[in-house]
């Protein structure tokens, strides 16, 4: 089973020992999210308790993909959205699924690709599937 990554754990600690960067200093966190997306074949940004996010994770797990999951809650949703909007150029909705370092989409895009048969080849291309 996968372990969810908490957004606050991804941010570097400041000199004061806080894991959250000071307001207005989001560049270091942005670099980490960009690196996280680039370094992993599949990344899911999901809100805690969201049924659509749960469905996306179950679908990917059902295909044998072990995505990196970043849990987003009420406390960090604004920061994550701001940083993801810098990466993709627009504010994404949750769940936000990145495949091969690019925004694949949300639940509708993932389910549509699954139904049309385009999901598995895309996951293979990103090296998230080996078969």
TrEMBL record:
A Pfam family that the UniProt record links to this protein: Glutaredoxin
This protein's UniProt keywords: Redox-active center
PROSITE patterns: GLUTAREDOXIN_2
Keyword Metal-binding: no
Oxidoreductase in keyword set: no
Domain of life where this protein originates: Eukaryota
Glutaredoxin domain span: 42-103
Database matches in NCBIfam families: GlrX-like_plant
Protein's name according to its UniProt entry: Glutaredoxin domain-containing protein
Organism: Salvia splendens (Scarlet sage)
Classification of source organism: Eukaryota, Viridiplantae, Streptophyta, Embryophyta, Tracheophyta
């Amino acid at each position: 089973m996968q372990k969810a990554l908490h957004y606050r754990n991804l941010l570097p600690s400041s000199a004061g020992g806080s894991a959250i960067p000071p307001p207005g200093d989001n560049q270091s966190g942005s670099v980490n999210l960009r690196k996280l997306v680039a370094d992993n074949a599949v990344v899911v940004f999901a809100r805690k308790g969201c049924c659509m996010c749960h469905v996306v994770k179950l679908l990917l797990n059902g295909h044998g993909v072990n995505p990196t999951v970043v849990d987003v809650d009420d406390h960090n949703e604004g920061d994550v959205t701001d940083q993801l909007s810098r990466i993709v150029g627009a504010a994404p909705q949750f769940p936000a699924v990145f495949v091969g370092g690019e925004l694949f989409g949300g639940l509708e895009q993932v389910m549509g690709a699954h139904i049309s048969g385009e999901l598995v080849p895309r996951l293979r291309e990103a090296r998230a599937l080996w078969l």
